[in-house]
Design goal:
With about 325 residues, the chain is mostly helical. About 75% of the residues lie in helices and about 5% in strands. It has a three-stranded mixed sheet. Helix 4 packs parallel to helix 8, helix 6 (about 140-165) packs antiparallel against helix 8 and helix 9 (about 230-260) packs antiparallel against helix 10.
Length: about 325
Amino acid sequence: MAVANLTYQPQFQLLGLMDGRDAHPLLFLLFLSIYLLNALGNLSMVVLVRSDGALCSPMYYFLGHLSLVDVCFTTVTVPRLLATLLHPVQTVSFEACFAQMYFFVALGITESYLLAAMSYDRAVAVCRPLHYGSVMTPWRCLALVAASWAVAHLHSLLHTLLISALSYPRSAPVRHFFCDMTVMLSLATSDTSAAETAIFSEGLAVVLTPLLLVSLSYARILVAVLGVRTTGGRRRAFSTCGAHLVVVSLFFGSVLSVYFRPSSAYSARYDRLASVVYAVVTPTLNPFIYSLRNKEVKGALKRGLRWRAALQDE
């Protein structure tokens, strides 16, 4: 840590989603509803995948992990966002700020790699259906999930150590609803060139790798779908892939637009709005677009509700 940070502990004041010191109860109710919907949808998926034997394929294995990551991802930031909407200017300690940054970055990168694993799984299912069982073995699925977690946490640890080693004012206003990397870089009073270089080089490679894998997987799916002769089959495939691609585009597009530009181009208002897209909206949409539209998931949900009703009758 820099010498300036050893003599005192900086504190940060989170200004929240909106500038000013006025409370926003309507926005509070909106984001509270979104957060509860997120928790309900994602935790329902986790429970269904773990409890229903019909959802034992690799696709649902990845969906279960994605849902767990999504609910943790929003929990890192949304409670603090809700607090700032009712009581603007929340004081956050140095340790709490960078702990939040660490988990936010780690969970966000884990989500991007899980999205890549899911797209690879779908590409194998569509393009090599006869070899699907031999390719997507339980050990390979476990390795993909473990690699997603490991790469994400190592990446987050590197960036958090680099940015926390910078010098900061004793009391610094953070024009955001959480301690984000770009915001902390803009607040630093010491040289940020090393941290920025790491974000643009190592960070770009880490983020672009899953994006490239997603693009290649969907390109293979597209080629396979175009070979389908029936119009109905093509329409169903394009409908499913289109919904998935919308979520992937929202997530990766907003992430790239926020993190991979120089700190001189930092815009607090734009970054806060873009952060809402990938930190709140996309994790809430995932369980509905990726799973709850699926007939097998709907069947598992109905079986679970019938089982619960039978227990209550007894």
